[in-house]
Amino acid sequence: MNRTRKLTVALLSAAALVAVTPSAALAAVPPGHGRPAPAPAVPKGKLPDVFARAGYPARAVDAKIQAAWRQLFHGDPGTAPTHADGQSIYYQLSPDMAYVEDIGNQDVRSEGMGYAMMIAVQLGHRHEFDSLWNFAQTNMQIKSGGEKYYFAWHADTTGKVIDTGVAPDGDQWMAAALAEASARWHDGAGTYDYGRQAEQILHAMWHASDSGGVNMFDAASHLPTFSPPGAVGFSDPSYALPAFYKVFAKADPSDKALWDKAYAAGEKLLQDAPNATTGLSPCYANFDGTPFMWPGETADDNAYSHNFQEDAWRVIANANVDAAWNGVKPWETQFSNRLERFFEGQGVTTYVSRYHLDGTPLPSGQNTYEPAHAQGLVAMNSTSAISATDPGSRAFVEDMWNTATPSGQARYYDGMLYMLGLLYDSGRFRDFTQPGIH
């Protein structure tokens, strides 16, 4: 969900935030709840590794990933109260609770908690995973009513909920991270029964209406809605995560038929939403893939909803993670080739971060994202090399390799996408629920 634009619907209303000074010391790692994970073995062949294809040695790739982890999770926290001059986005609130902070807005978002949990399980950092999950479950998960098991989309850094509206990307990422944790580390009791916790969240996505709530997925299109319970008449293409739906079908077996339909619908939205010439997707879309506009917006204005801005960057990786996990499909190659050709025309190392879908850069007043060549978009664009056959693919991988780990005020969103991009590009973003992955 967009972290900078103030939405006009009541369920996502803005609120004043109060930051707290985190503890600089990390707590001791609590006892594990299962066996340690050995190195992954992939009988059917390794996941696509575009860094290796570009000639980067495995040792250098490992070092780059570990350096990014240390900086974003255990680097300089920055000066309170804003932390804008720091490196880390992970803050240990107590021995068993931690949060990831949106530095620019000084709040905690379900999206970021899901990203960070997934990064932690991918890299085998169980203490950080459990600390993040404890914070999210204790403070952000809705405990009663029709939306029970959903998560409030943002809270302050003490855990106080600011808005009980729901951002489905965050819920999906947390559920996926829990399912992967269950497969990698096995399940414990209560909070640490990762598989059961994932199943509860996933089941609610289709059956909240049974308890008087609003389902997260649209019954007709089988796509995630924008923000239940209030804004459910449209979607966000970056919320379509088909690779995860294969995992969800195993984690929530009673709804396997629905997750299979969500997989097909998610792939279709990722094909329908991008512009046929540029490959650029809108941030929000109707269920048929056409750009969504709020009342009063027009097709040629600079509004966030129907132009290519921060939410839409993630569409690129969503298609290519599916390609990595489930095999490259012709439409994924066509999409990635089209997108790369567009950005090659803009200059691989100099393109800006916000565009109209036809490829026209937004005006300078609407294109002030810092840095202008945003690290998060660089990371997402580099994943196109997973499925692309365009001769220029290597340049996008090199641009990612030469991009520094984000720091400063914009390090939250850019940092999360950058860290994920390193895992995607290196073939180290694994589905532990598949046979042979440990």
TrEMBL record:
Enzyme Commission code(s) on record:
3.2.1.156
**InterPro entries, alphabetically?**
6-hairpin_glycosidase_sf, 6hp_glycosidase-like_sf, Glyco_hydro_8
Asked if the keyword Cytoplasm belongs to this entry, the reply reads no
Q: Which EC class heads this enzyme's classification? A: hydrolase
Molecular-function GO term, any one: oligosaccharide reducing-end xylanase activity
Q: Which residues form a coiled coil?
A: none
- Tell me which UniProt keywords the record has, alphabetically: Glycosidase, Hydrolase, Signal
Q: What is this protein called?
A: Reducing-end xylose-releasing exo-oligoxylanase Rex8A
What species is this protein from?
A: Actinacidiphila bryophytorum
Query: Top-down, what is the taxonomic lineage of the species of origin?
Result: Bacteria, Bacillati, Actinomycetota, Actinomycetes, Kitasatosporales
